[in-house]
Amino acid sequence: MRPLVPVIENGDLKALTEIVKCNPESLFVPNEDGWISLHEAAYYGQEECLKIILRAHPGMVNTCGTHNQTPLLLAAIFHHVNCVECLLDRGANPEIANKDGETPLFKACGKPNAEIVDHLLKYGASVHKACVRGVTPLHEAAGHDNVEICQMLLDAGAKMNAANIYGIDPFFTAAQNGGVKVLSFLISKGADMNCQACDGATPLYEASKNGHKEVVELLLSQKADANRTTKSGLLPLHVAVRKGHFDIMSMLIPATSKAKVQCSGISPLHLAAEHNRDWILEVLIKRGYDVNLQLAEDRSKMYEDRRSTALYFAVANNNLEATEMLLEAGANPNLDMFNPLLIAVRRGCMEMITVLVEHGANMNASILTHPCSFPAVVMLGMKYLPILKYLMDNGCDALSCFDCTYGSNPHPPLKTSSSGRGRGRDFSEDEDEAPINTCVQFCEAISDPTISLWAGPIIDMLLDYVGHVKLCSRLIEHLDSYHDWAGIKVKAMPPHSLMQLCRLKIHQQVGIPRLRHINTLPLPPILIKFLNYNKGDCLNV
Prior knowledge:
Blueprint: H1 4-9, H2 13-22, H3 37-44, H4 47-56, H5 71-77, H6 81-89, H7 104-110, H8 114-122, H9 137-143, H10 147-155, H11 170-176, H12 180-188, H13 203-210, H14 213-221, H15 236-243, H16 246-252, H17 258-264, H18 268-274, H19 278-286, H20 297-300, H21 310-316, H22 320-328, H23 340-347, H24 350-358, H25 376-381, H26 385-393, E1 415-416, E2 422-423, H27 442-445, H28 455-463, H29 473-480, H30 486-492, H31 498-510, H32 525-531
Antiparallel strand pairs: 1-2
Helix pairs in contact: 2-4, 3-4, 3-5, 5-6, 5-7, 6-8, 7-8, 7-9, 8-10, 9-10, 9-11, 11-13, 13-14, 13-15, 14-16, 15-16, 15-18, 18-19, 18-21, 19-22, 21-22, 21-23, 22-24, 23-24
């Protein structure tokens, strides 16, 4: 620290007067920020020190530091009213800005001090001079909800519609920061409540995003337009839902056009489901928002899996409560390109699988990017035998698993990964390794080394859900690889039990949608158990 600094900080006028007489050069020695003695006096609010220095060297009043800071700017920043007045009286220029374009008036409005603002305005400070971001003193005062300073600036000619480089005006800034008092004041002065920033956001949108309930209430009471969208197509309702502002969302719903929501290509339901806002989701459903509205194509493309429904978001988040709410409200579980049921199966989530199947999820859905000749749920659920059985009980197509183009003939050799592990043809973990436009067969999928250990139990279970089938040579190879699986080959050989064939025929006649209602048939309980593949039944197949 320079020896001069403690003298000024402590206001030691006698010592400072001695320095001015005996060592005047020290007054001009800068610190690392380029501050000289006058800056230090303004920083510490030592008015008398300022006077002593300026009497000796009046020409240094507008000296700038490294960042173009003047003593006047420092005095304004740190609320030293007397120092501001002293400097102005001695010729300080209120128009000199720092390297960011911030003038003393700008700083006095940003750290609101009406007295300093008044002094600066009296000495000709411009209300129009903006910083490098285009922010004016009125922006700063509005952002700090200071009505008094806003009035002073407007009286001095400040423009209410002056926009910064982002297209934001002072009214928008007040809404952004929750300034209810300034908003009311500016509305009374004729401010545009529906002004839009460069990204299309309105004051209402910004207040909704930031959770300023009182501001939203004020704007809506003054008929602010809740149906103006941002350039990305979002409404204030969308952002309130995304941020989880329940009270604000409740105020916006009556003011928001459902037609506008539909045109936006995204429903508030999507956002509620995506962000696990279950309480909001429930309200939106009760208010009649379409649970089957799909994302617009351009929005769907933003997700790698091309999801399109609110239900998909709920399932992807493993949110059972939201999933049940949507399904009970009529959500169709089969609208997405990648069926939500496949997500639940891949995760092994039995509760989610059950609720989706009970509401009609397509168990035989395929994956367009990974085509296979059998249901994709089988491919994804091979490691979860209880899940696989549940799906088969409810009508999943087991027969296609035994449809092989090679039959009893030799199959092509299994592909081997770089690690040396065998893989079924076309069933590659790396999409780049998979041949284009090929269709994986069950016998190939089950040959993956991570699955083949369960080949016997899987095949054994699937045989319960088919009639006369012929095992291909690849499946026989798997069954021959383990002596305990030998009996499974026998199970596949005809003749099959008449009861087994009858059960399959009954299932076929009942149809997949009604399988879960078999319990309601007027049949003996023991027969119902048999039809439901209940292991506790007393009938022999």
